[in-house]
Design a protein that fits this description.
Blueprint lengths: L1 H16 L4 H7 L1 E10 L5 E10 L8 E2 L2 E9 L1 E6 L5 E4 L3 E4 L5 E5 L5 E10 L6 E2 L2
Antiparallel strand pairs: 1-2, 2-9, 3-10, 4-7, 4-9, 5-6, 5-8
Organism: Noviherbaspirillum aridicola
Pfam families: Cupin_2
Keywords: Signal
Length: 133
């Protein structure tokens, strides 16, 4: 059951980032909106800007990216869990960078929404996120 829940959370994370309908994202406790996607001056790379909102008690699901994630916390409290590192507490005004390929997760530890703006500098034509085992 635990493995099923982890896989479900990871699949939801990836699917939502791929612009699933808002109703599904709301049902999972995670809202994501692709704000901008653009090619970069670096061949084979693109930048993706996304708005993310995580409901209280919800985890995003363990995953990695084919590039860096640079995020800024707009509102709420959460925890960043990067594999091999100590958990990092986050609050409004904090920012973080997740290195390319690092397995990570995030969870809302507050009583209200945890809102972020994420910028992903990733390999073009690859999935934005890949679920981790």
């Amino acid at each position: 059951m635990k493995t099923r829940n982890i896989l479900l959370a990871a699949a939801t994370c990836v699917a939502a980032l791929a612009a699933m309908p808002a109703a599904h994202a709301q049902a999972s406790g995670i809202k994501r909106e692709m704000v901008q996607r653009a090619d970069l001056s670096v061949p084979g790379r693109e930048a993706i800007v996304a708005w993310v909102e995580v409901a209280p008690g919800i985890m995003a699901g363990r995953h990695s990216h084919f590039g860096e994630e640079i995020s800024y916390v707009i509102e709420g409290e959460g925890e960043l869990l990067i594999e091999g590192e100590a958990p990092r507490k986050l609050k409004a005004g904090d920012a973080f960078v997740v290195p390319a390929g690092k397995v990570h997760d995030a969870r809302n530890t507050g009583s209200g929404p945890f809102k972020l703006v994420g910028v992903f500098v990733v390999e073009k034509d690859k999935p934005l996120a890949t679920p981790a085992k």
